[in-house]
Amino acid sequence: MINEVFWSNNLKCQVKQISKRMARKLWDEGREIYLQTSNMRFDNIWQPPMPSKKDYSFIDYTFDLVCCSYETNSCDNERGKYIHFFIKVE
Hints:
Elements: E1 5-8, E2 13-18, H1 20-29, E3 33-37, E4 50-52, H2 63-74, E5 83-88
Antiparallel strand pairs: 1-2, 2-5, 3-4, 3-5
């Protein structure tokens, strides 16, 4: 995992890659995380990162459900088989 902070032109802020365990913890706290397939850069114009936040009061989303759905729809051999998680650096 990359432990460096870099500038995101899409979000106009700094972002940092985090582990799945940390992403789950931040999800439970209600913080916004970003999901991106493993072979794509964060600032990719063809497939931007998907923001996700645990504030959907009308649907019972879980962290595992969001990850499974994203892997099913976005991950493949070309874009990457795994999810990388990112968070804004404050």
